[in-house]
Each structure stands twice: as C-alpha cells, then as structure tokens.
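Appendix B. Worked example

We walk through a single record from start to finish. Start with the input: the chain for ornithine decarboxylase, Aquipseudomonas alcaligenes, length 375.
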Amino acid sequence: MEKFKCIKSFIAESRPAAPYFCLNLNEINKCTESLVSMFPGEVAYAVKCNPHRLVLEEIIRSGGQAWDVASIEEIRLVNSLSRILPSYFMNPIKSASEIFEAYSSFNIKEFAVDQEDEVRKFMRLEIPASDITLSVRLAVSGHGALASMVGKFGVEFSEAVRLIKFIHAHGFKCGITFHVGSQCLAPEEYSKSIAQAIAVAESSQVPISVLDVGGGFPAKYEGHESGFDLYNDAIKISLSGSVLEKSHLRCEPGRAIAASSVMVLTKVLAVRSNGLVHINDGIYGGLSEINFLNCTFPVAVWSDAGERLTGGVRSWKIAGPTCDSSDMFKKEYLLPASIKVGDYIGFGMLGAYSPSLATRFNGYGAQDWVQVSNY
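Next comes the structure step. The output line below is what the pipeline stores for this chain.
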C-alpha cells in the first residue's frame, strides 16, 4: 500500500481519478491504547467493524487483548495474523460445523447463545462441556443508540434465567452478554443493562464466569459525544458490590477503535445549479455509513492541485455516481460555494463498517487504499 504524508500530498502527487480509502494507522494506535488503558477488563476488538489486515496488525501492536469474532472466516483471518490473542465467537447463531471448527481448529472456548437449540448443537457435537463457556445474550432496550440492535438477538428475563440454568445443568460454564446498540450516546444504558444482568444472575443462582458488555462506545463524529470515561464509570459503578463484580469483564469495541482511522476521498463529477453535487462514490460504495447513522460526518474539500478550500460555504445536496436515484445523502453538507468539477471531497470518520460494506454496484465504489500519516 502506498504511503503519503497527508491527503494534500496524495492529491498533489497522484491526482486520483477513483475514490480511495485513506487509512491513518496512528488513529488505530491512539484509540486502542486509550481503551485498553481505561477499561477495567478485557478489550476484544469487533473484527466485523473493519477487518483490514493492516488495521488488525496495528491493533496487535497497540496492545489489543482479544478478538470478538462473528464468523468462521473472521476466525481464520485473525488466526492468520496471530494466535496469541484469544477469540470469542459472539454471534448467537452458528452452524454446527462452525462451532466444531472454531473449537477443534482454533481452540475457541467461549460462545454466545440465546436459545436452547444453540446449546444443543454443542451437546450433539460431544465437545467437553466443562471446556466451554456459553454466554446468554440478553435483550436490552437499545435506547440512546444511533443504530439500534433490538429485535434480532437476545432473550428476556425469565427465558434468560431458564437458559442459564439449562446451560449450567449440562456442565457448561455460564456467562452473560448484551449489546446496547451501535454509537450509544447514553452511558446510563450500560448501567440499566448491567442491572438486568445482575438480576438474571441473582435469580439463576448459577456462577457467572464472564460478563461481556458488548460494544456501542461512541466515536466522535460531531464532537459532542460523551467521552469514554463516562461509560467506564457507569460500568464500574454498576458492578461494584454486585454478584457480578468478580466475573471476568469484557467489552467488544469496534467503532470506537476504527471509525477515525479512515477518510474516504472522492472527486466531484458534476455540480448542478439546483444545489446538487455528484461525486464518484456513494452509499453503495465506501460511504454507506453516511446514511446509516443519523449524524453529520466531518468533511474537507481540496482543489485538484491539493490546496485546501475553505470559506464561502453553502448547503449542498450530495449524490453518488450510480444510476440509482436513492444513491444520495439524507443530510445536506456545508461545502464551498465555489466547488467545481475536479475538486476533491474527503469524508472523515469512515473507518467503521463502510469499508466492510462497500460494494461494486453499477461498477462504482471505493476499492483502493492508501496510507496517510495525517489528514
């Protein structure tokens, strides 16, 4: 991968015609080190968020402690990098073949479940129960999250208690996990969810070896988002003196580590008099997160010579390059009133999920990467 000092240098030296993912590994280092130093438990990076090999390697160098994996392909990927860091298979639904390969080939011994049928898959495989921890996924409110995860996974209180007792009765070690939703702006949601977990643990009267509080810690897209210290405090205070205080504590950050590491650099294809700017990437390519989260992403504009353009801004609608009329941003963005064909627009904070979800619909979409030391 080519390396450049900054976006300006990349534009001036290369005049890129295609959209690019511009990767800043310094951001991965900074965010990983910060989370690991502050969180009072184990930090397991959510691989699905951005599985680029350079990102994963930088997380290892920066003190990353474990991997939150959701498929056998992710397990194979992280094990091709390093077998030092443990992996936890936290997708509640898995095939029997995935479970067997994860355990027998990669020594994964901790899994999430949210129904009895999933537990029975382990029983039918005749994997030694005492070697396995099964963490029951709780259904939580999802309030305060810009991307709710309510509905697909998780069980309510009474079923969670029953399932934990069932797991324990069949010789497995028991854990509890939940996910408050992605980009959660309300630290108190962790307190509420931990209170649910404590109530389940108390009612089940079963030893809980691990509490996994999931991900959801916010990245700073707009600058007003709460700092990690507030989430950290909420978690520690909620656990203090409880039946889960001595359980192994884990989190699964993805966005909080990866978001700030990528800017997607696009080029202006057309400027319409009605206030619409067409660019060479869109929501089907490297910019899918733009419409997924209800927030405004940071933006910067350069001339075709690499000079930063500022001042004299106005509100513009933005459209991607495909022939699909829905390939447009939901929000308008403030860009220079003088913007023209050939200028470059960089959209920051796109290191989380957008690279993973990018398609080549209509033959468009960012596929190429460069490294930058600064934006």
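Two observations about the output. Residues 3-22+261-372 form a domain with the Lyase, Ornithine Decarboxylase; Chain A, domain 1 fold (CATH 2.40.37.10). The two ends are 17 Å apart (CA to CA).
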